[in-house]
Fold these 4 entries.
Entry 1:
Amino acid sequence: MFDFVRRHTRIMMGVLFLLVIPSFVLFGVDGYNQSNSQGETVARVGSHDISQAEWDAAHRIEADRLRTSMPTLDVKLLDSPEARYATLERLVRDRVLLQATDKFKLSTSDAMLARNLQEDPTIASLRLPDGKLDMDRYRQLAASQGLTPEGFEARVRKDLSVRQIEAAVTATSFATPGMADVALNSFFEKREAQILSFVTDKFLGQVTPTDTELENYYKANQAMFQSPEQASIEYVVLDLNAVTKTISINESDLKSYYEQNVSRLSGNEQRRASHILINAAKDAPVADKQKAKARADELLKQLRQAPGNFAEVAKKNSQDTGSAANGGDLDFFGRGSMVKPFEEAVFAMKKGEISEVVESDFGYHIIQLTDVKAPKQLSFEELRVSLEADLKKQQAQRQFAEAAEAFTNGVYEQSDSLKPIADKLKLEVNSASNVLRRPPPGVTGVLANDKFLTAIFAPDAVEKNRNTEAIETAPSQLVAGRIKQYTPARTQPFEAVREAIRNRVMSENAALLAKKEGREKLALWKASPDTAVLPAAIVLSRDQPLNTAASVLNAVLRADASVLPALIGVDLGPQGYALARVNKVISRAAPTEAIANQGRVQYGQWWASAENQAYYDSLKDRFKVKMMVSRPVPNLADSVTNVAK
């Protein structure tokens, strides 16, 4: 075959030209790149696939949003499998609802879009005093979400169309007062019960496992005693701090930057003013505003004749209750502290001057500039440290993209070592031992990043000992790593986990004894109710569980009220067993009308939410949703291993 290719090179080149070039013409190079870069499919809605790359990008955006809105949030929670899966479910929901809008031909008119944008508080805050939209700030708002104004409006239009799907259910859902009262009365119903617990711990003294039992348990449950795979690794981090360390600023650039920015860095000018305010609300009738303006003009005329009486006139006439008593004095303030018309007038005046009448949203002002506090100009040496830090940060931000490209290419092209790229970019090669695919609590930074750990334990990194690709672990942060020593998952020796096995066998056998005694008592007391020995009765309800186990509480509240007293048994799993005698039902106390109405409203919301969820579930079936990723579950093997350690 290969001999044929070598002998007929020209023919093969012609064939390849005919096959490949038209493909690039039709699909473009980007089409090939995108088809390979999206990664595996993680979910499917009808014929639309959601890729791993889409999921990663959506979760990164969601995590960044949550970090910004809740700075104290533990970032580990954002990288958990449960949090990532919730993001995938939101992606699927968005896609299902979007397909439903297309299927049902729901759209948003231009008028509806315009009305929604006008009513949006965020958009309203961008309006100028004359009511027009500040387009520069509007573009900034869209850009902050990675969109153009047109893209932003298209997204809002899409969201409004999607909302029609859910509104069709929630807006038409209702629950009658009778329905709500029956459900809420049942929910808040109380029951008097006597509860006796057969706790596992109390039976531990009756259990003495033999060596044979322990060995048999070990052989039957070896998966529980697996030591997870782990690795000793080295890794390199490229971020703004790393780039900043490589930058040196020469003295001439530093002095030029000082000269250009000394005014800004030394602080802002502050001005002290007094004013007289005649109130006139922005939306006041024209006649009232004219009357207020006339009064302000009259006071200004007086002040022109006797400027020294400003404080006295302010005390008698100003309607600003906060400053009138002080002769209208507002103390020192800088730019941005006052409404715009007031600020513009103050910063255009000379010390001692009295302004013309100035109109603002509060009414009409007469202003006197009483003092000017110019900022003290700081010397070059005083500002040297902050100047150098500012310049380095600016240059680092400009150079990061170039460094990131070199980093990405370098770790791939020289995949057998991280040292070349570290030397080239002056980065530090870090080491870490006992790195796990799922990091234990307390681990932070890149060693807790799910994407980086997935790459570290990927087949290429483990079997071929190659560098990982450059992984984005945070904004402006790339990481690449490699394994120095790998230890696969293995079953721990019996002696290493002997004590853990003994504890588990004792607990399981003690739980069996607790259940056995509980069931025997249940049978005995059902046959002879008068022989039952139970503790004092307590009153339980869903809103007052009195620290009762959920399974016991549910059993008590679900007991058949037509055959009271009722004796029931509840299996508590590893905790043992419980017996409960339900003596009587206590109806919910009649609520006040206000509380009853509040409950009915909330019940109606619950009902609408349940109907909405049921409708969404039907849409998932209709559009053939398929999740390719399993919902995460707690890892029992990990918890047992931790106990063994």
Note: The chain is about 50% helix and 15% strand.
Entry 2:
Amino acid sequence: MTPSSSPSLADLLHAAVTAVGGTERPGQVTMAEAVAEAVDGGDHLLVQAGTGTGKSLGYLVPALAHGERVVVATATLALQRQLVERDLPRTVDALQPLLRRRPQYAMLKGRSNYLCLHRLHEGVPQEEEEGLFDPFEAAAPTSKLGKDLLRLRDWSDETETGDRDDLTPGVSDKAWSQVSVTSRECLGASKCAYGAECFAEAARERAKLADVVVTNHALLAIDAIEGAPVLPSHEVLIVDEAHELVSRVTGVATGELTPGQVNRAVRRAAKLVDEKAADGLQTAAEGFERLMELALPGRLEELPEDLEYALAALRDAARTVITCIGNTRDKSVQDEDAVRKQALAAVESIHTVAERIVEGSEYDVVWYERHDRFGAYLRVAPLTVSGLLREKLFAERSVVLTSATLKLGGDFNGVGASLGLAPEGTGGADVPQWKGVDVGSPFDYPKQGILYVARHLSQPGREGSRTDMLDELAELVEAAGGRTLGLFSSMRAAQAAAEALRGRLDTPILLQGEETLGELIRNFAADARTCLFGTLSLWQGVDVPGPSCQLVVMDRVPFPRPDDPLMSARQKAVEEAGGNGFMSVAATHAALLMAQGAGRLVRASGDRGVVAVLDPRLATARYGSFLRASMPDFWYTTDRNQVRRSLAAIDAAAKAEEK
């Protein structure tokens, strides 16, 4: 096709939007034009596209028209499914006649997301001490684990993908771990009896042939960090839900050591190495476990001498075991390759984390965590991932990052800095140049929503019940006739609020943790009188348009906990470099969550309602204007009586429509 006969971007977008049954919006057109300009010029782009813009088509259409391979990375399973099951099939069908070619697309996830046929048929290499029977042996298993495994075996004969997310209903993590492997545990297709049928290998092959590869932030991070490419080479990277990227990359780059993990590695290695090597690892494990029994939560700015000694012993013993496993073969061990691979993966993980902590780095943060049920953890995470992202993500491809919340406090520079980007329009040869575009929203926020700040309430403290806040919450919920999504800064606060309101109101109160999240959201959407209270995943994961969600309440500004080791270390580092650590870290963290939380209110053009923040600091503190500027442009008030009248009117209108 000659350039003169190529279809225009406007024609392509119109065809795609028509195919999905949508309507073109100015913001979507602006976004598509900006993405096309960026990918054609090999440039980097940050796009804020509000809810309802139709941003997936805003990037898919110009990406497909570009003709080079594109990787699209998202944070949530819901968006991956939407892209692969709805948006891409319809868009490709619509564009094929205009492009005169049919772009191919594929989904690619980490190896542990796919059923492993070797594990399924040969069983899991188990530690003898655990004494687990083979759940597949029982003709009629009675335990939930046994039933899940039997269903997985039946499903393996039907599934074309082996993708865990295609199994409905799902199974427990414990059941899935029996039939999946990590990349470190995998035997490799050439050494595995089931390599030719491997679901993970098939997914990678489909990805190599695809024009568009849909993946997740975690796999993108692994591809960038570990140096061993797991994604096919690509010229364009599009990161959707980009506000999540830094936390997902941080998660992948975080190492962890627990006594349980170390003891499992000891048991797995014991049957494969000589007694001296096994005893050395056992002794080191016991020393580490004794220290962890006494560990108190908190950051370790310097390694205590006893911990440094214990970790060095663990590292050295693990290195010896790794060498032994590489040099020995034991024909008496059934399915010895799988046993060796699993043991090696477990011991290598111990060695890597122990060595990283002992060697120390000014760019790492080390801390203890303690859980009531699981005991103490030792963790190490990067102080920042900005340099890593700048070097690995932006160096060799055009990158487009998009989300409904990328402008914090009115500009892109805060999010840009977390990604390793200098302020827009600045930077030298080593700093990627980029452009930020806000394409707006199709919603009329000042007319559709109210931002109410309860200025009269007492300021929240770290602990203790806020009786005035609970009184205010009860009055607001009553005025709204239910219809409330309660977003709380902690699970304890959500539980206390649910308990208090269940005792005061007839309104049904659903609480996160009492059912699966999917079931809670379905029940919340089904009955407009119902309220749903919860914590972090609700701030970002609820999409309930219509009369079921007309009041969104935030109990307080969601600053990170003062004792959060990683956040406090990042804040301190900014201050030592001469910056404002509070605004760069704590306020930016809160602004992102508040923008996401407020975005739960207006999900469709007919939605009306109130976002109520029960923390006076949003109105009175100096940083309040920064936080408010990060949220949708709702009509702002601190008048409690006005808000009650507005909620009552919205409730009455919704009831009239329901009739």
Note: The radius of gyration is 27 Å.
Entry 3:
Amino acid sequence: MESGGKKRLAIISVQKRYAEHAADLIKMFFADTLEFRCYDTEQLLEIDELQEECILLSYFTIFQQVKQKVRKDAQILIMDLTFRKDAVEPLKAIPGGTKALLVNLDYRNCMESITMISSMGITDLELIPYYPGCEWDSSIKLAVTAGEADLVPPGMERVIDLGSREVDANTIYSIAKAMGIENPFRDEETIRLRDNLVNRNLEMDYLFSENNNLSVQLNTLLGLVKKGVLITDVNGRVCMANQMARGMTKKYTDFESCNLEDILPEIELDNDGENADYVSEQLIHLNGRIVAVSVSPIESSGRVNGHIIMMEYFEQAEDRQHKLRKKLRDSEHRATYTFDQILGNSSQIQETKRIAKRMAQSDSSICLYGESGTGKELFAQSIHNYSRRKDYQFVAINCAALPENLLESELYGYEEGAFSGAKKGGQIGLFELAHQGTLFLDEIEEMSMKMQAKLLRAIEEQKIIRVGGRKLIDVDVRIICASNQELKTMVKEGSFRRDLYYRLHVLPIKIPPLTERKEDVLLLMDSLKKDIGAEYALTKEAEIILEEYSWPGNVRELKNITEYLANLGYPLIAAEDIPLDVEDIPDKRSKSSESCTEGETLRQFVLKALKRQEDEGGCGMGRKLLAELAAGAGFAVTEQKLRRLLHKMVEEGVITAGKGRQGSMLTEKGKWEIGDNG
């Protein structure tokens, strides 16, 4: 600080004369408290470091040249320029509708001048920006300039020079704030000077002055907002910004007093008071990311005094919409299964999983084929969780479970009053709920032809219309459908649309039935036992039964059998405990056995064994002994299977079933069957 206790203010412009002109006005407010130094940009080249506590720049464009030469504790301000009211007064006498060139250094200066003149209520004069190098209408004979008369093009009949623009009251406020001066407008003279300036934005700066408690409250509020917020005056000068906005724009210091076009050049401000309620929305690229931006005018007394700019990363906006959609349906749709939960060591299931993982990386439609109970929804959820859409909703619906009208309202949603019983406010459909995610259409073959046509249109256009509505709604949904019928056959029969088939059948996946991967049966059963907390073991014969069974109900049937055996409460499950039909378990005999006569059936073997027992003077023969003899003869037989066979033979009258240890014995009819008729 200089001797005498005065703080120092440096004023820097491209040409020193502009800096000195600005200093002349500023001195009227701070002559007793500040010391002034004026520089041009060429002088800066010879200076290692500026010693002043506050630096005032004529334009933001020279900021980069200056910031390397200021002290760390110095504050940098950007000068706002305006006109004196008495200088603008001659423009009011010009007839309405007159065209005039507004002459200045560049387009930006032209537009700032036009905005200021308009703020004075001079709106009937049609001012057209003119600056060196631009084209102009030679029929225009009136020029208005701001101290740049030497730039006026030839041929003008009249030139109105408003004089060099003055430093406006906003800048005076900013200097006072930076230097710790309480009130720069301390007497009648300074108040008169202030009031003679065109200060359309003075109310914005006053609103945000730290002497006003509202500023503190507003700063606190903006800090809680999860979006970037910028507040500007009517000319685009930034008056306030929250921390989120600073982070998004990579400007953590020297933010206020910047111009919006220097920070977000893609944003256009609407200063038309007639559109004060209008909110413009657009997407811009900012530091390598897509940002959703909304611009809302700040309107007071019928005119626009500034703007509020709200910024949000596009992916965050999408995520927020995603969460809101879930709340609108008051439901949670999630894919809980992954490929790791699809068990099986067989080559068939391993190959199917490999194909499904590759197809999951695509956004194309997938069609899952498989018998009932093979786990089509398990695969659908796993595909979703392996895709780029995994962070969004997995929405499933069974097309066979609802009548046509209900299926339509579920898929596409409906507007309020669309039909009797419709909810107040309407309801979003599953397509909207699955936006950015996956929609799983199970049993697609049951969908009516009318619904097929509407589904085709939604897939092709990626737009839907709610029932009873007119508005087209954009949706980005990956379709996975499932069928236990061959859709191609249905197309030939005329029960499924050919065009929809080709839309859905882009990536077909066939899920193998359990009968084609029997080596996985016991592995799956062990997993199912753990799920229900069962701990029983299986005999070897029981394992053979389970592995040889055809499993027409696939994994769903296996789950039922697992639960049934668990409820028996036996620690060891024998073959006869398993409730499966004998007809579905094929006989498999050892080809190496010499005891088994070629072509001999188990029935014939039992009859002959009972005949030998009788010939040797024995009584009947028990089921256990018969089973052992049959196994030794090469028959793949269990006690349960044998028990069913013996029961059938008793009903036919070829054997008798003795009580206790008597066992089974031949009847005369049985002897006749094996050729022993005496």
Note: Residues 200-212, 273-277, 587-599 have pLDDT under 50 and may be disordered.
Entry 4:
Amino acid sequence: MPDQSVTPHVTPRDARTQVWVETAAPALEGRLATHYALANGYLGLRGTHEEMPDWASPGFYLAGSYGPVRREIIPIHSPDHILTHPERVKPEHHAEYRTLTTLVNLPNPVAVRLTIGEERIDLGAVRILACERLLHMAEARVTRRLVIRDGAGRKTIIDSERFVSWADRTLLCFRYAVTPDDHDAPVAVVPYITSGGHHHPSQRCHVRQNVSAEGFNQMTISLPNGCGVTIAQAYTVRREGRATILDVCISVADERDHPEAAAKAANYADARAAHVAAVTAAMRRVGASIDADGLSTQGFNFGLLHLEMALPYDNPAVSVPIKGLTGEGYRFMVFWDTDFHIFPYYLLTNPAQARNLILYRYGQLDAYRRFAARWGYNGAQVPWETGATGEEETAPWLCLPEREIHISADVAYAVKLYDDLTDDPSLLLDAGAEIVFETARFYASRVTWNAAAGRYEIRDIGCPDQYHTFADNNVFINRMAKFNLAYAAELAGDARLHAVKAKIGLTAAEAAAFAAIAGTLYVIPPNADGIIEECDGFFNLSTDLRGISESFCSHTQAVKQPDALLLFLPFGEEYPAEVQRANWRFYAARTLHGSSLSLPGMALAAAGCGLLDEAVDYFQRSARMDLDDVNLNANLGVHLAGYAVLWETVVFGFGGLRATRDGLHFTPRLPRRWGEVNFAVHWRGCRLAVMLAQGTMTISADAGNARTVPVWVNGEARELAAGMVGEFTV
């Protein structure tokens, strides 16, 4: 790292590739630690200062390392909360805290002790003259320049850089350079591994061994599950001109894997080069970009980076937590967000790894069967929140587990997407079909026959909008259940699945019952004005939305997020564009955007039905969700699913993609305010790069594709062989 005080230079800032901030205000540290968090699906590191001031917001996480939660991090909701039943908030329910878990906040290895002269530098005691942090999104690394004046009046410049390796997912590295500016006092800097105690991690871990030697630190800890994890920190210190430069390579792994050897063997420059190359390759694989206003472009690229940083590689035992590995919001639980909103992104950009997200669900299937039995139902019910075990982890006073029941069908829908869009039949045979059959069994036992109306219904559920917790026949839940039952009945006729059916005792009569229920399961149709009622009686609720809140809104048509519009993503072919537009306008006027999925969901729905100006407006607001802290909770981690929905807005909305088993159908509609969009699609073992500009769409088949890909653009059919480029007027 050059001596920048001697060789000054100006580096232009580029909002397309960088996120920067010029402050060290302690009050902002929670959200800034999220903004500058780095991860690789295995390790997650919040972006706090290396000097570890008392006001820091550190976090260092290892995927899958769940332990019992400390009671005080779970808020106790008021009996008036919209998701709470008045009879459920009782003191005896508090004992159920011990059933909840979170990831351990590990001792942090990106920490230094800096001494200038005789003064140990404490950021809370020195004057911070300048502090700039930059996230270099194209390389997934963070740099910082800190200028301080210490107690002796000396000015010192500190430059640092860090990355969590995408090339070796057990590795993270940082460089720390100290340059005296107006003094010659001696500088000493050494790294250490924090004990974690004074930073109040959400879950403690036991330090089993702590070793320090020249150029090396190592800590072995016992996780709550009994496993031992070793953090090995190898470092060198050198002088370069007036600068003292510390290079640190850290390896984290099971103690039996001896990560100390990997840490000692790593070279900072080589590790950095390998990491940057891996990031470049990953972003080329995704191939997504937009030519829009600077704020939208920056937020979109920030979201793509975090989607890539959240994906665990080659590990079906873990999935993608709702906040990735960037913060402790929702205790790193896995929600429906992963299966319904995030999975399509991974499926179409990295299908080999998307496969593991379904295997994660399959590995917990027995727990899901027990969960269904808990409520007296058959088959498998996927819990609303779950971590490592498949057990329900929703706070015990909330009514989500027994009423927010669409998540089971969301997982079945992911199975169908994978089977349709990849050339890998083994997942369906080995895991997917069993998931579909067992979730169909759940819905078959959950429906109620309405003899007077001659139809099946689903009663006593909570609408996904979450402001109407006690309802009947929610349109999204019923339609997803109908899909699940019909798909199970279809798969039951597949001769390849005989062993699966025999394993779980699925009979022809039961499969026929699935089909019969699906055929008569009530899904609320559009009314004469084309509006789809969210649930029975919704149109009769008050339209007076003045003064409402989460504890005073269930009597109104206010929604947290418009779940009726969710229908148009999987079932858009069933609803004409004019119906979709009518529903968008109806629910836009009633949506309070209390969910981080609401703004991007509105953008996607608007783009899908041709309301492009509205889509662009909601897109920009969504893209700023974390960077502008729109919901005032960025300190808890990024809103990962929202970024997946933004990608879907570009690909399914503006790109007009409908991916099916028979090929790729495009009905493009680019906003007039945008120059172009680019994205890549992986379909049945092939990759295609798509460029949509005003008036043209170009689709390029990779040279390495093994088959011809059928594509349709506004109905015009082409067959794109490997290396071919199709140009279309749109």
Note: Residues 21 and 61 are 24 Å apart (CA to CA).
